[in-house]
Amino acid sequence: MIILPFNDVECSYMSCCGKLICNGCRFCLPREHCPFCNTPAARGDEETIKRLSDRIEKYNDLHAMIMMSAYYRLGWHGLPVDQSKEIELLQRACELGSATAHHNVGTKYQNGNGTEIDMKKAVHHYQIAAMMGNMLARHNLGYAELENKNYPRAMRHFMIAAESGLKDSLDMVKQGFTQGDVTKQDFEKTLRDYQASCDETKSEQRERAAVIQSRNVE
């Protein structure tokens, strides 16, 4: 019953019933059935895509849209690499209020993957996602402020994200402290809040899941 991690990468989406589960529970379950609805895991690419398509069409499921957009980006589960389909799904999820979709669209505009590079639009989507609690978007807003040489605002974004448990943001706060852009009091508070956030979402199962994920990436 530990709260879910803020980072979607640390969670798994159950396409059978639309629930999210932390990877610590997902990877450590002794069976191949959904712990929520007891449905067997999808067998093969065709069933995987059909389940996601059903969730999208019947329920406007935001997580299903984001998963499907990722599969189009990567060409997984038998789908072709199709950036237009990816962006179409992300924009649909944005319209329905998905913070993750806004963050992902922001990265599209920032990096020019399937779109023109447009930092104004990227920041717009990051701002919406950050206001909805997406800390990765908050972190990216910090970098955008650094580019504009607005160091106090940049550090404020990094501190908020770090206090929610984002290690990359904590590293930026440390750098800001050594450069004199963050006060000792703010730095110490950020460290305490970062540790408290990490402790709140920490478990042995999640640590084991992280190891499994790293091996799969390798």
Q: Which overall shape is indicated by the principal axes computed on the Cα atoms?
A: globular
How much β-strand is present in the residues? Answer: under 5%
Structural class: mainly alpha
Mean pLDDT: 92
The number of helical elements comes to 11
Order of helices and strands: EEHHHHHHHHHHH
Radius of gyration, taken over Cα atoms and rounded to an integer in Å: 19 Å
> How would a crystallographer describe the biggest sheet?
2 strands, antiparallel
Written overview of the protein:
With 218 residues, the chain is mainly α. 66% of the residues lie in helices and 4% in strands. It contains eleven helices and two strands, in the order ββααααααααααα. It has a two-stranded antiparallel sheet. β1 and β2 form a beta hairpin. 34% of the residues are buried. The mean pLDDT is 92.
Keywords:
single chain; 218 residues; mainly alpha; two-stranded antiparallel ribbon; 2 strands; 4% strand
